[in-house]
Amino acid sequence: MIRKTCLALACASFGLASGAYAADSIKVGMMTTLSGPGAGLGIDIRDGFNLAVKHLGGKLGGVPAEVIVADDAQNPETAKQITERFIKRDKVDVATGVVFSNIMLAVGPAFFGSETFYISANAGPSQYAGAECNPYFFNVAWQNDNLHEAMGKHVQDKAYRKVVLLAPNYPAGKDALAGFKRFYKGEVAEEIYTKLGQLDYAAEIAQVRAAGADALYIFLPGGMGINFVKQYAQSGMTKKTPLFAPGFSGDEDVVKAVGPAMEGVFNTSHWYREMDNPANQRFVADFQKDFGRLPTLYASQGYDAALLIDAAVKAAGGKVADKAAFRKALETVKAPSTRGDYRFGNNHYPVQAYYLREVVKQADGSVSNRYVGKVMDGHADAYAKDCRM
Amino acid sequence: MLYLILEQALNGLQYGLMLFLLAAGLTLVFGIMDLINLAHGSLYMIGAFLTAAFFQALQSFFPALLLAILATAAIGVILERLLYRRLQGMNHLSQVLATFALILIANETIKIIFGAQPLMIGMPASLSGAVELVADELYYPAYRLLIIGVGLTVALGLYLLVNRTRVGMWMRAGASNPQMAAVMGVRIKPMFTFVFALGAALCALAGALLGPLLAVSVGMGESILIPAFEVIVIGGIGSMRGALVGALLVGMIDTVGRLVLTFGLKLVVASGTAATLGPTLASMMVSLLMVGVLFFRPQGLFPARG
Question: Which of A16, A257, A311, B207 has the most neighbouring CB atoms within 10 Å?
């Protein structure tokens, strides 16, 4: 009995001791989608994150960083197994990378239960922004609704009066359309939900045609969006019913895949390439140099996630194991970022500006995004008021 | 509304014909060789990737398509000689295991050669627009019309091959009673190789045609395999006619069902609920049809073995 108590005390003091000293390295578990139709998103997040770590000399917050990369293949079961491995075997200090909200909701409880910090570089489900918010969850990108809210406001401001909405039938799809409708007050002629991962949209395009609306808003991440926009252009509908999208379906990955047919598509994002700040200029230039392609908003989010971790580790004096200090640092630190200033709300989701971009023909004949203007400033999400932590 | 239904019928026809190309090979191999080939979808993926590769080299769609079909058929011949011949006569569980392993091998190999990101095949520029079928009312993408045309031509060709030629007679004999056919002097082994290569070529054709429409990606074969199996269960294993009817049924139900169910539900429940419930129910419809067929006609609608 006494021996057991001693052992426990020894362990406890050891635990405290290791917390008190600065860590000699920081382990990041990067689980993201690297294969299948959503692969492009995860690859950009990973590349953006790694570029930041490279810029920081292989360190995060001054301590050597080890980034463990795993592919969830957009499969919640695979994701759960990797999460177990991250927590039990690799004992990561911080995890990041999940692209899809259904996967985030499947693995969140395991991270929170084991008190592992999770810095989301993409998925921003409404659940974790509201009643189920968690001290261990931070989102460095946006809440799922935000980009759609910005586009809802733009379409409203431009006086389109009858729109068709289209999204996949999964948590972020519902968040998306709810977000759009929060700021759009006109008539919704048709609300179409598709299977997640669907690749052929002939049936949906026919429905859009029949609805006779004056605008179409889609939320279809990854390969889904690429296929839809391609097929929409082929159906000859682009002129009749113009297409509006969140930045996800109007970014460089989609533009590159679809080509000139993308010209004229408006999309909203919290980041644009021409943004004038030192972090962004270094990021854009080196991303193109290292990877030979234009960066997307996903890449900027991966980059910003690494910059946030870096700043927070520094602010906590390198003591990642001291959970309270590290959390305080994450909540309050002013990290540099590619999108300029942002801060966290009470639910650990960003409060920031949202911008309008348009896909246009560039001087060299290629098509890519151009900054149009600011849609919202200092915008927080609609769920923060339900968060008690 | 009429034109919407008409357009959806065309979409259903196009999807059904693509399913037919896949199901035809699957049903022949299953019916004639008594072999469950889970890796059938992998041949579809290989065909699509080869088309993408040849397209990148030649920058021209139709030659790339032809080369890919020939190359996939050749891969089919090699696979049949090396592997499937040995699997024949084993129990179905062993076949399932071996061909499942083949799926994993094919996926990893493709990933190593082409990378994990989806590839794009450019569409012939002349076919990338929409055709006006009914003035101002019904437009339809030219490329999808081409797919329908090719699908119908292949269906007719297969029908003639199976029902009007000597090879077709052997195939039908092999499907209904392989032992008897062998005794009657049909050279079963070369015929099996031919059947397998034909199945592979049809897969490649489907993969190549769908490539410019969808994205060519690792694992694309698995998602199409389930509807292909549903088609042959509904149509009757080993029956070409069954495969065609089954494929068109599945294509129509999947495409038209999504629209009609959502529309119908809107009359009964709130439109938000209908929008969510409709697609879910529609994707169950095909499975329900299969259950119904299995219950009332366990041999399928057009059984090959009387």
Answer: B207
